[in-house]
Write a structure and sequence with these properties.
This protein is of the alpha+beta class. The protein is built from five helices and eight strands. A six-stranded antiparallel beta sheet has the order 4-3-2-7-6-5, with helices on both faces. A two-stranded parallel ribbon has the order 1-8.
């Protein structure tokens, strides 16, 4: 699938030591007390908003893979202009190349998402309606298994992604993996406490 660029590509302008700037941003994120709370939606918002402002892109979203591995469900979308869309789920049978890529590649770097082999399947149904020109997606890995994706989308102009951008995106995906693991641990602790209360109540009734 081919798509002629509507605008000239944008190369992210250098602003001092970009790698150091990204590192400082990541340190602030890791130290944010919100990460140690159980409100995952607020954590998603913090990560997506920070990523959008740091990379100067308009859309950042977080998706989780269903248990069967056949669909990605959008859990959070941050858009700088406050807009949204109706796309809440994408399925493997509609976008087989993309699903194959997130399972086999450390990240997808599509300067031109309309022609890139991993993302061109989205051109007519997703990219064109939302004016998305470039994408960078990174799978979220928990115990070496893909559990979701963090997606970066640049609108209206094409973006030439830099190596530092890829490192930053991968770092955010790793942070999300930790968030998901911590959330799972908190859920298990709640289940254990609930089971302990039930057991205690049953034991108390038996003793009386």
């Amino acid at each position: 699938m081919n798509c002629e660029p509507a605008n000239h590509p944008d190369k992210y302008p250098p602003q001092g030591n970009r790698l150091a700037y990204f590192l400082e941003t990541l340190i602030r994120l890791h130290r944010n007390p919100l990460l140690f709370q159980s409100d995952v939606q607020k954590i998603y918002e913090l990560i997506c908003k920070t990523a959008s402002e740091t990379l100067e892109i308009s859309r950042v979203s977080i998706w989780t893979l269903d248990k069967g591995g056949q669909a990605l469900l959008r859990r959070f979308l941050y858009e700088q202009d406050g807009a949204s869309d109706e796309i809440l789920e994408i399925k493997a049978h509609d976008y087989p190349n993309y699903f194959k890529a997130i399972h086999q590649k450390p990240f997808i770097q599509a300067d031109n998402a309309h022609t890139h082999s991993d993302t061109c399947e989205f051109a007519d149904s997703y990219l064109k309606p939302l004016h998305i020109q470039s994408m960078m997606d990174c799978p979220i890995l928990v115990n070496n298994h893909v559990t979701g994706v963090i997606c970066f989308e640049h609108q209206y102009n094409y973006r030439i992604w830099q190596p530092e951008d890829a490192l930053f995106v991968q770092s955010l995906a790793d942070l999300l993996a930790i968030v998901h693991q911590n959330n799972r641990i908190l859920q298990l602790l709640k289940e254990i406490r609930s089971q302990n209360r039930e057991l205690s109540e049953k034991t108390g009734r038996l003793l009386h």
